[in-house]
Amino acid sequence: MPEEERHTDSLCLDWAVTSESLGASFDFNDLVVGWASPLDTLSSTQQTTAYGDISFWDVSKDLQISMPQRSLSAKGDLTRVSNHLPSLQHASRVVMQMLYAYPRMMLRRQTFPPFIHPHWHQEHLPEALGNCMSIAQLFASRTPETMPFLWKIIAAEQGRFRDKLSTFNPWEVHLCLQVMIIYMIMAMSESDADSKERIATLFETVELIGSRFLDLTGSYSSSEATEPSRTWEVWIFAESRRRMSCLWLIISCVITIENGRTCSSCGALESLALPSSKTLWEARTLDEWQMEKDVFDTGLPFSAGCGKSTVLRTAIAQLRAAGRKVAVTAPTGKAALNLDGVTLYSYMGWKPEDTKLSLNKLKGTMTGSSKQKIRKSLRETHVLVIDEISMVENNFLSQLEAVLSAIRNNQGNRSPPWGGLQLIVTGDFCQLPPVDPFQNCWHCGEAQKKWQVSEEGMICSNGHGPWETDKDKWAFRSPAWEKAKLGDSSPERQAIYQNASEMPPRHPSRRT
Prior knowledge:
alpha/beta; Rossmann fold; 2 domains; 4-stranded parallel beta sheet; 3-stranded antiparallel beta sheet
């Protein structure tokens, strides 16, 4: 059969090399062995598996495995990461330690492994998960005397899966597949006379279940962009499939079991649908899930990894090619570095303490020979780009606009907003909140501790305000935002801004 039409049932990584001489003892976590099924098929349509003669090993408590110096079958060769690649050995060890922890994570509903949802939307767990929790209890407290009973229970459970597989719906089939992964990890961590046969049977059942699932669904997972989930329950099913696909990829990087069968080749890894955020996955109520989902959907167009930086760089390049001088800025150095820009403080020539001054004094800092280059740069700017706009405080944006207008025009109240420059802002409106907003009044510089509280909000002793510190902290609540006339200023658009201001800020770890 031509090579392009045949794909052997093993996944051998480019950096994996066959050990010429396996020592008498080595760490199983350093092994790199390939699963018999590729990522996008998970199993072939055949329901029987021919396993090579892999003689099993003795596992001690420190996970040291004794093996003969030669493999007993060409179909069961074990390969491990080359000794001259310690970083890959470490990665393999970390992955294996993660996998070995999964059975104990099944002891409590609150600590399920990250690919098994605790089903908070249901009062009781599905039967497969409930049984797996009970089996995990037996596994955690196992003794040599109880081990035979443990494996009989697992064998009975996988027998039940096989008998009822044709009657299960896709959701039930997927639950069977999830718990079978747990049972396989349990079997991999033990060693006795029946280990080889036990693992072979478990793996055969996994392939059978995987094949049935693909027969029912046609594909294993898809992204939210291609197939949006309309309900919490539908989303849990879709997200569970995505997480299982990612887990299978991780497993295939550290474990290989060759069985000599053929299957179709895997698809491109770049098309693999990635999981959603941890907070969305761990939501315990419909309201909590809906809120997190709304935040995720709202931030999706400009969330990390979606191409915002690429779009900005393209726009900046085109503007500069047209002869426009573009200043690229961000509130922090880290954010600015991503676009080869500078901080807003650096662009304006300000120190952090300068923004605590009154507006007149702040304008005064821009005079003198020391700020001549800064003033020249500000006057020559045609387009000002501000990335990560949510981190820019209301008052800071007002100071920015007032000083730019004064320097660029020097026409008093007749100066056009923002001194006539073009303003481009990007980022989620309510992603990362400004740090310590409203510390000083931007008009007179008075510290917030001297402000008075009224029904409308906080007002400085000179009558400036009012500000509702939590609601008005965002840049889009600033009068300078209105002056810029950024996009649609209709009542409908203002309502969107208002709703956005009432949303809880997203934590950095929730970025996708």
